[in-house]
Amino acid sequence: MKVLHLYRTYFPDTQGGLEEAVRQICGGARRFGVESRVLTLSDNPDPAIIEFPEATVIRSRKNIEPMSCSMGVGMFAEFRRQAAWADLIHVQFPWPFADLVYLTSGVNKPTVITYQSDVVRQRVLNMCYRPMMKAFFRHADRIVATSENYLASSKELQHYRGRVEVIPLGLDETTYPALSGDMRSKVEQRYGSDFMLFVGVLRYYKGLHFLLEAMRGAPYSLVIAGTGPVEAELKQQAQELGLTNVHFAGYVDDEVKVALFDLCRALVFPSFLRSEAYGVTLLEAAMFGKPMICAEIGTGTSFINQHEQTGIVVEPANSAELRRAMDGLQQQAQRAGEMGVAARKRYEQLFTGELMGQRYATLYRQVLDEKVLGSPQGNSRS
After folding, report:
1. Range 2-172+353-373: architecture per CATH
2. Contact assessment for residue 115 and residue 146, using Cβ atoms and an 8 Å cutoff
3. Range from 15-19, 163-167, 269-273 carrying the lowest mean pLDDT
4. Is the pTM above the cut of 0.90?
5. Which of 49, 162, 200, 294 would bridge 269 by S-S if both were Cys, CB 3.0 to 4.6 A apart?
């Protein structure tokens, strides 16, 4: 079975949670006979084709990026070429330009959409975009929500419930490097141990400005690993607050990241808006057996992190609650350790890459069979 994935960016150009999600979907499904290609945009698509273990990546040039919506004129022709190869199209939503490319292509292949997030920030533009989005969704054979939480709380998804399935994202731990003693020593020498850790792209909805406020006077450290659009303003805020206990690590490779997870006391993930639909970094913390702190925003964050079981779930945009949660895990090592064990157990039960890959491979085959036999479910195209 051949599946063409469509998303606006991918490795090696960027290293975010959604890129990791696509990589894990491709790698997991590969075990079950699925061959994947990822069609994406790049500022510098040289080489245009990259072979990764999980998929062949085809990069088309990105020309503009208005309102964080990547666009490239070459994508129209490239999509038609790659779609001719594929048995099924799999699109990561939201990316409005993908809707346009798909709808104007004339391609009529079975299609799955993974609904990663509501359109949250650009409300005015969203009103203009909705007719195209609805047309795009009418073509989808299945829409995948990444958690029951998000399905229940998304007003948009309620319109398509008859075609929605829930497949939680997962991680294949064999794709991460083994922790080396040398790397652990280097990271410990630089940052110490038992620190609070954030890993991710530094975006507006991550809530890091609340986390920095919460770190004032804390007798422990915070390591922020990642880069992103709000990096400069966060560093300015940290300087203004006089935070000598906050370390900006910048981009870290997987070897360093594994060491950071091993050395930290807990992962803090303070995203406060629904733009954060899941939180792959939370999955990583669970995989590495670390307790988590996140906010209740009605999305997958509190599906992965169960309050008082695998970590602590706090009120969004609340620095005082973040501080209390961090203090509690810092002061109660046994409690933090027990939560980490529970997090690892939950990962093994629900969030492995193999389980996710099996679910997607099964879904792909169901969609293809229905195209041949006719849809037995009579799914609504509202």
Report:
1. 3-Layer(aba) Sandwich (3.40)
2. yes
3. 15-19
4. no
5. 294
